[in-house]
C-alpha cells in the first residue's frame, strides 16, 4: 500500500538492464497511477514504483517518461471531468463540485509526485523542467480550469453578487470562495498565476460594474448616501478578507473607493461639504476626508470647501455709494474678518493627513508668514486671497478705512488692548492682498491724517507698523516709520520751543509739525508761498521757531506749507461761543477783523498776500457755507469781486461748540471726520510708482542677461515685483516703452520680440 508519508528509499545500484522494456515499465507505472486515482493500491509498494522510475531514468528514457506522464494525467483528468454533473446555472453547487474535483486532483498529484521523486531529482531539476507536481497542476489548468474559465468566473462572481445583494456573508460560501481563489493562486501562468493574470482583473472589473449599476445615490439624501456608502464599503471589506489576500483586498478597496466614493458619493460631495460647513460640523468634514486616501478625491473635498467659502463671501453685497463709504467699508471688513476667523477655526481642527509645510510660499507671495503654515490654513488663505483679488481696488481702501476707524481715538489702556486684538485679526486679512503697494498708499494717506490731527495713540500706531513690517517687510514700512519719526521729532521740538519761548507764546497753543517731504503723501502740494503776511504775534512765533530749528539742525532746510496747517480760534458770537477750526489762510482772514469791522476783497489781499485764487476760494466758503456763514458778504452773490465787502457774522450759531470751517477743496489734508478719499488719485500715483519699480526691475534683469525675449523678461519682472503688486501686461508694456524711449533697451532688428540692453 502506498502511504502519503515519504520514506527513506535505498537507491538501487546504478546499472543498465539489457532486457529493460520502456513499454512494459510504463504499463506498470500507468497501473500504479490508476491505483492512486482509485485509491486501491493492491500489490504496489512505494519502493517498487520508485525502482521502476529509477530504471527508466537510468536507461535514458526520462524524457519519454515525462511526456507519457503528462499525457496520462491529462487523460485521467478528462475522464473524471466527463463524469462530473456540472450545471453552471447552479452557481454555488457548481463551485462546490469544482472544489471537490480540485481537492481530489490535488491529493492525487501529491502522491504521483512522491512516486516520481527520482524523476524530479535527476531529470526535472537539472533540465529546469517543471517538477512532477507542477506538471500535474499545468495539466489541471490546461485541461479543466482554462476551458471552463468563463463558467467558473461567472459562477464565482454571481455567488458573490448574490451575497452583496443580500447584504450578508455566509461562512460556508466564504470557505468555497477561499478554496477557489487558492486553487487559482496555485496555478502558474506566464511567470505569474492564473489568479493574478486572469481572475483578479475580472473580479475587480465585475465588482466595479456591480456597484456602479446597483447603487443609485439619488435614492438617498446626502447624509443617507454617505451612511450607505460607508456600510457597503465596510461589509465588502469584511467579506473580501475571508477569501482574498491582503494585496487583492487593497486593490479591491481602491475599486470601491473609485466607484462608491469618487463617482457615486462624488455626485453629492459638494452638498455634503456645504452641509458640514453650514452647520460647522467639522466631524462630518473629517469623516468625508478620511473615506479615501486618494489625492484626487481629497483635492475634490478641498475644492468643494473653497467653492463654498467663496460663495459665502460673495453673498455679501457691497454698497458702493460714496456717502456711506466708510460705514460700508467697516461693515464689509468686519464681515470678512469674521468669516476668515470662522473658517480658519473650523479647518484648523481637521487632519488633512499632511505635515506642516516648510518654506512653502502661500498665495500672497509673502514667505515671511507662509513658513510653517498648516495646509488647512493655507486653503482658507487661498480662498480669501482670491476673494480680495476680485475686489482688487476696493479691498485695500476698505481695509485701511477699517484700520483707521479702530485706531482713531484709541487712547486708554483698555481701549488700546481691545484695539490691538481687532487689529491683529485684520493683519491676517491685509497680508493676503496681492496689491500690497495699493494698501500701503491708502494706509499712508490715512496715517497722515491721524498723525497730523492727533487722532490716535502713537504707541498703537507704532505697534501696528511693526506688525506690518513683520508681515510684509521693511520695504513697506520705511515711509511709515519715517512719518512716526517726524512726529516724535516734532514733539521734541515743540517741548523745547515752549520751554525756550514761554513768555513770547502767551496763550497761543503752538504745535509745530516737521514733516520729511519724501515720507508723507503730499506730492501734489502747490508751490510754497514765502511772502504771506501773518499777524505780528504769529509772525514772531514763526521766526522764533525757525531760529530754534536752525540752531539744532543747521544743515537742514525748513519750508512752511500753510495748506497743510490748521488753526483753531475761539470766538464769542452774539448767541454762543465757538472754537473754529480752519486753514491758515482762513485764520489770517478772520484775524484781520480783530480791529476792523469790515474789509473789501482788495484790502484783504493787500493785508495777507494770499494768492488771489486761493483768497477768492476761502472767502466764498466762509461767506456761503451751507451750515452757517462765518462772514457776511455784500453784495450777497456767488462771485467774488475786488470791491465786495466782508464782515463778521455776529449772529452765527451752530449746535456744537467746535466747528469745522470748510474752506474749499484745495486743502491737501481733509479733516479726520471726512468720509471721502481720492482713490483715483491714489491709484494714479500707485500706477506711476509701479511703472518706476518695473523699470528698475527690468534694467536689473537686462543688465545681467544682456538679451532676452519679451515673454521671458515679463516672467522675470513679474517674479521680481510680486511681493509688492501683481504685474499686468499694461504696466509691463508701458515700462518697456519707457525704457525704449530712454534708450535703456533696444529691439532686435530682425525680431521685435527680442530686447537688448544698452550699456
From TrEMBL:
Q: Name the UniProt key words of this record, in alphabetical order.
A: Isopeptide bond, Ubl conjugation
Reading the lineage from the top rank, the first entry is: Eukaryota
- Taken from the record, one Pfam family name reads Cullin_Nedd8
Q: Name one GO molecular function term.
A: ubiquitin protein ligase binding
Domain Cullin family profile span(s) in chain numbering = 394-623
Record InterPro entries: Cullin, Cullin-like_AB, Cullin_homology, Cullin_homology_sf, Cullin_N, Cullin_neddylation_domain, Cullin_repeat-like_dom_sf, WH-like_DNA-bd_sf
A GO biological process this protein is involved in? ubiquitin-dependent protein catabolic process
Please indicate if the UniProt record lists Ubl conjugation as a keyword.
yes
Ribonucleoprotein: present as a keyword of the record? no
A GO term from the CC aspect: Cul3-RING ubiquitin ligase complex
Provide the family line: Belongs to the cullin family.
Record's protein name: Cullin family profile domain-containing protein
Q: Which organism is it from?
A: Naumovozyma castellii
The coding gene here is NCAS0A05140
Amino acid at each position: 500500500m502506498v502511504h502519503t508519508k515519504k520514506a527513506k528509499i535505498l537507491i538501487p545500484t546504478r546499472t543498465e538492464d539489457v532486457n529493460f522494456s520502456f513499454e512494459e515499465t510504463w504499463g506498470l507505472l500507468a497501473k500504479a497511477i490508476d491505483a492512486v486515482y482509485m485509491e486501491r493500491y493492491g500489490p504496489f509498494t512505494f519502493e517498487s514504483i520508485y525502482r521502476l522510475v529509477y530504471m527508466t531514468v537510468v536507461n535514458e528514457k526520462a524524457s519519454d517518461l515525462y511526456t507519457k506522464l503528462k499525457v496520462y494525467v491529462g487523460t485521467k483528468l478528462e475522464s473524471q471531468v466527463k463524469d462530473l454533473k456540472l450545471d453552471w446555472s447552479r452557481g454555488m453547487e457548481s463551485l462546490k463540485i469544482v472544489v471537490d474535483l480540485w481537492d481530489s486532483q490535488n491529493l492525487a498529484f501529491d502522491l504521483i509526485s512522491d512516486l516520481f521523486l527520482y524523476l524530479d531529482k535527476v531529470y526535472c531539476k537539472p533540465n529546469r523542467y517543471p517538477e512532477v507536481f507542477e506538471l500535474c497542476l499545468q495539466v489541471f489548468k490546461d485541461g479543466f480550469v482554462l476551458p471552463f474559465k468563463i463558467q467558473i468566473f461567472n459562477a464565482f462572481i454571481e455567488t458573490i453578487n448574490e451575497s452583496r445583494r443580500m447584504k450578508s456573508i455566509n461562512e460556508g460560501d466564504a470557505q468555497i470562495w477561499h478554496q477557489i481563489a487558492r486553487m487559482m493562486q496555485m496555478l502558474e501562468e506566464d511567470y505569474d498565476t492564473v489568479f493574478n493574470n486572469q481572475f483578479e482583473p475580472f473580479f475587480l472589473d465585475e465588482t466595479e460594474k456591480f456597484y456602479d449599476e446597483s447603487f443609485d445615490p439619488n435614492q438617498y439624501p446626502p447624509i443617507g448616501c454617505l451612511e450607505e456608502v460607508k456600510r457597503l464599503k465596510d461589509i465588502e471589506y469584511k467579506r473580501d478578507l475571508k477569501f482574498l489576500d491582503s494585496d487583492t483586498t487593497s486593490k479591491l478597496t481602491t475599486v470601491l473607493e473609485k466607484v462608491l466614493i469618487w463617482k457615486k458619493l462624488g455626485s453629492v460631495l459638494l452638498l455634503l461639504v456645504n452641509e458640514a460647513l453650514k452647520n460647522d460640523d467639522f466631524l462630518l468634514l473629517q469623516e468625508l476626508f478620511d473615506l479615501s486616501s486618494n489625492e484626487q478625491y481629497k483635492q475634490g473635498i478641498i475644492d468643494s470647501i473653497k467653492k463654498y467659502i467663496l460663495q459665502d463671501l460673495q453673498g455679501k453685497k457691497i454698497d458702493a455709494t460714496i456717502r456711506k463709504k466708510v460705514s460700508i467699508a467697516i461693515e464689509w471688513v468686519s464681515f470678512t474678518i469674521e468669516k476668515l476667523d470662522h473658517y480658519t477655526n473650523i479647518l484648523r481642527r481637521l487632519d488633512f493627513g499632511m505635515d506642516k509645510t516648510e518654506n512653502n510660499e502661500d498665495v500672497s507671495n509673502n514667505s515671511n508668514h507662509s513658513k510653517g503654515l498648516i495646509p488647512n490654513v493655507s486653503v482658507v488663505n487661498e480662498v480669501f486671497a482670491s476673494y480680495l483679488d476680485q475686489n482688487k481696488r476696493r479691498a485695500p481702501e476698505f481695509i485701511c478705512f477699517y484700520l483707521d476707524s479702530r485706531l482713531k481715538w484709541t487712547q486708554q489702556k483698555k481701549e488700546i488692548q481691545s484695539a490691538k486684538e481687532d487689529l491683529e485679526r485684520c493683519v491676517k486679512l491685509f497680508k493676503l492682498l496681492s496689491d500690497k503697494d495699493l494698501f500701503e498708499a491708502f494706509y499712508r494717506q490715512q496715517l497722515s491724517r491721524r498723525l497730523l490731527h492727533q487722532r490716535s495713540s502713537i504707541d498703537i500706531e507704532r505697534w501696528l507698523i511693526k506688525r506690518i513690517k513683520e508681515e510684509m517687510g521693511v520695504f513697506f514700512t520705511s515711509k511709515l516709520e519715517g512719518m512716526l519719526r517726524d512726529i516724535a521729532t516734532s514733539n521734541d521740538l515743540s517741548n523745547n520751543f515752549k520751554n525756550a519761548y514761554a513768555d513770547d507764546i502767551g496763550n497761543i497753543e503752538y504745535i509745530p509739525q516737521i514733516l520729511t517731504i519724501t515720507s508723507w503723501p503730499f506730492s501734489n502740494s502747490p508751490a510754497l508761498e514765502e511772502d504771506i503776511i501773518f499777524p505780528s504775534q504769529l509772525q514772531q512765533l514763526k521766526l522764533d521757531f525757525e531760529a530754534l530749528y536752525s540752531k539744532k539742525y543747521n544743515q537742514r532746510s525748513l519750508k512752511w506749507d500753510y495748506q497743510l496747517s490748521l488753526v483753531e480760534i475761539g470766538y464769542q458770537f452774539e448767541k454762543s461761543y465757538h472754537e473754529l477750526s480752519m486753514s491758515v489762510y482762513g485764520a489770517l482772514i478772520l484775524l484781520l477783523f480783530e480791529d476792523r469791522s469790515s474789509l473789501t476783497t482788495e484790502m484783504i489781499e493787500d493785508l495777507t498776500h494770499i494768492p488771489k485764487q486761493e483768497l477768492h476760494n476761502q472767502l466764498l466758503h466762509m461767506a456761503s457755507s451751507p451750515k452757517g456763514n462765518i462772514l457776511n458778504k455784500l453784495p450777497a452773490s456767488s462771485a467774488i469781486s475786488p470791491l465786495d465787502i466782508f464782515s463778521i457774522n455776529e449772529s452765527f450759531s451752530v449746535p456744537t461748540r467746535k466747528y469745522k470751517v470748510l474752506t474749499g477743496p484745495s486743502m491737501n489734508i481733509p479733516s479726520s471726520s471726512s468720509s471721502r478719499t481720492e482713490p483715483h488719485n491714489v491709484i494714479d500715483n500707485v500706477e506711476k510708482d509701479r511703472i518706476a519699480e518695473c523699470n528698475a526691475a527690468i534694467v536689473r534683469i537686462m543688465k545681467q542677461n544682456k538679451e532676452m525675449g519679451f515673454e521671458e523678461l515679463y516672467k522675470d519682472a513679474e517674479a521680481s515685483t510680486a511681493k509688492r503688486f501683481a504685474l499686468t501686461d499694461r504696466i509691463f508694456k508701458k515700462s518697456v516703452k519707457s525704457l525704449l524711449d530712454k534708450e535703456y533697451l533696444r529691439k532686435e532688428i530682425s525680431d521685435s520680440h527680442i530686447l537688448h540692453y544698452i550699456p
